[in-house]
Amino acid sequence: MIHKTKAFRISILALFIAFIIIQNFVPLLGYIPVGPLSLTTIQITVIIAAVVFGPVDGGIVGAVWGILSCIKAFTAPSSPVEPLIFTNPLIAIIPRIIVGIIAGYLFIVLNKLKLKKRLPCFSRD
Question: Which residue of 1, 10, 32, 91 lies most exposed, with the fewest beta carbons within 10 A?
Fold first, then answer.
């Protein structure tokens, strides 16, 4: 049995961050080009990290995604407008942090609601 220690949590968090780095820089893994735009699937990884580890770690993974999208806007923009928009940290980083935080808290709230509305079990009386 694996004991969930702080080292275990940090190593799995590092794996999520490594997966986001791979998704960000390998074409067609994280960003799917559609005309002048790029659709992203990286938010799925951030949401999974927030559900598994909570809103704080989801925000950390979201911050890494935001920083990498800022770097990508400078180095390899997918459209001529991308460097003008995504080099601003308020647009590139803050919303991605919020994705992780909201996903984590939403999972906690929905999980508590599910536990409160549990159907009564049939007993063998």
Answer: 1
User: 6-22 burial string, b = 16+ CB within 10 Å, else e?
Assistant: eeeeeeebeebbebbee
- List residues bridging with 31 in a β-sheet: 40
Which own/partner contact pairs does 85-94 have at CB distance under 8 Å and 24+ positions apart?
Answer: 92/66, 92/67, 93/63, 93/66, 93/67, 93/69, 94/66
Q: Are 11 and 53 in contact (CB under 8 A)?
A: no
* Of the options 2.160.10.10, 1.10.1760.20, 1.10.10.10, 2.40.110.10, the CATH number for the domain spanning 6-108: 1.10.1760.20
Domain ranges of the chain: 6-108
Say yes or no to pLDDT of 38 above 80.
no
The DSSP 8-state label assigned to residue 106 in this structure reads H
Which is more confidently placed, 41 or 121?
41
Mean pLDDT of 33-59: 89
Q: What is the pLDDT of residues 53-89, one digit of tens each?
A: 999 999 999 999 999 988 888 887 777 777 777 778 8
